[in-house]
């Protein structure tokens, strides 16, 4: 299953998706976002993230980055920071992380 980003219209009711999460309906226009706020279980200061283990965000970010520039912001608590998250070649790095303690830029050109 691939992530599909869709436009949100507050006038159109959300519907449960394949995982039961309320989402824009399948009839909503698909889009390529400029910003992705990525959930995570843990992160390190090199921009590696540990997700839920399905690789959904890595595949979606890789596909988007092949088409355009996209900024990926990890949203976490400071306590989720790890010294090192093992990374594999297919893993996509975060551009920055935002915690309750502040903004952590990872990409050096931002």
What does this structure look like?
The protein has 110 residues and is of the alpha/beta class. The chain has two domains: 1-30, no CATH class; 32-105, NagB/RpiA/CoA transferase-like (Rossmann fold), CATH 3.40.50.10420. The chain is 11% helix and 23% strand. A four-stranded mixed sheet has the order 3-6-7-8, with no helix packed on it. Strand 1 and strand 2 form a beta hairpin. The model has no long low-confidence stretch (mean pLDDT 93).
Strand content: 15-25%
Strand order of the largest sheet: 3-6-7-8
- The succession of helices and strands, N to C, reads EEEEEHEEE
What name does CATH use for the topology of the largest domain? Rossmann fold
Structural class: alpha/beta
Distance between the termini: 32 Å
User: If you compute it from the alpha carbons, what radius of gyration comes out, rounded to the nearest whole angstrom?
Assistant: 15 Å
How many strand segments? 8
Can you identify the CATH superfamily of the largest domain?
Answer: NagB/RpiA/CoA transferase-like
CATH class of the largest domain: Alpha Beta
Largest sheet: 4 strands, mixed
- Name the average pLDDT: 93
Low-confidence parts lasting 5 or more residues at pLDDT below 50?
Answer: none
The percent range for helix content is 10-25%
Number of domains: 2
Please count the helical segments.
1
Gross CATH architecture of the largest domain:
3-Layer(aba) Sandwich
What labels would you give this structure?
alpha/beta; two-stranded antiparallel ribbon; 110 residues; 11% helix; 1 helix; Rossmann fold; single chain; four-stranded mixed β-sheet; 23% strand
């Amino acid at each position: 299953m691939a992530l599909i980003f869709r436009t949100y219209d507050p006038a159109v009711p959300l519907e449960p998706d394949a995982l039961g999460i309320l989402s824009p309906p399948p009839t909503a226009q698909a889009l390529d976002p400029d910003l992705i706020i990525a959930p995570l279980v843990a992160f390190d200061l090199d921009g590696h993230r540990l997700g839920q283990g399905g690789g959904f965000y890595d595949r979606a970010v890789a596909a988007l980055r092949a088409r355009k520039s996209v900024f990926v912001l990890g949203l976490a608590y400071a306590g989720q920071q790890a010294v090192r998250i093992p990374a594999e070649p297919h893993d996509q790095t975060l551009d920055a992380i935002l915690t309750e303690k502040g903004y952590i830029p990872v990409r050096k050109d931002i």
